[in-house]
Amino acid sequence: MTTAAPLPSVQEVLALPAVIVETAPPEWEDVNGHVNVARYYDLHLRSAEAALTALGVDDAYRAETGWSMFSVEQHLRFLGEVHVGHEVSVHLRWVARGDKVMHAISFVVDRTTGSVANSLEVLEAHVDLTTRRACAWAPTIAERIDELVAAHAALPWPAPTCGAIGVRS
Which SUPFAM superfamilies does UniProt cross-reference here (predicted)? Predict the structure, then answer.
């Protein structure tokens, strides 16, 4: 069994750019009096979409190439509660890229309490929408991902991966 890296501090996560910053509205609250699990997932998905759009994987890319991204594996961790009225932000750390996949982890920070509340580790495949099969990255997108992976590999803290998800040869 692989031992996961220790969780980063909130200061370490906050050093990554915030993809989303917003305040948890009343409709996010569940019957337990905190933000519902689906809302965390929604934050991660919206931040991933924004990050991919910034890379160039957007509607125009899909229309021009016929390629997109599919989720392959995910690991969601709940580290603390978020309550209505708390300000949250989502920060993305790029971990690795393979010929047809990429590995990343995003963090939800509760800015009100100053804590890392949640993380989502993902393996995403680059796919041909016609064949519905994984395909090689467009060179420009691969280069951008590689730049981000290299920059994040230089961070002074290891990515807290679960050990079960990763780029395989």
Answer: Thioesterase/thiol ester dehydrase-isomerase
Task: Give CA–CA dist 69/72, Å, rounded.
Answer: 9
CA distance 45 to 40: 9
Confidence check: pLDDT of 13 > 60 = yes
Q: What is the pLDDT of residue 42?
A: 96
Q: Which fold has domain 10-153?
A: Thiol Ester Dehydrase; Chain A (3.10.129)
Report d(CA 169, CA 164) in Å as an integer.
15
Mean pLDDT of the 16-31 span: 97
> Is the CB of residue 116 less than 8 Å from the CB of residue 11?
no
- For the record, the structure tokens of 141 come out as 């997108």
Task: Give residue limits of the domains in the chain.
Answer: 10-153
pTM score > 0.85 for this model? yes
Contacts of residue 49, defined as CB under 8 A and 6 or more positions apart, other chains included, come to none
Q: 38 by DSSP, 3-state: which? A: helix
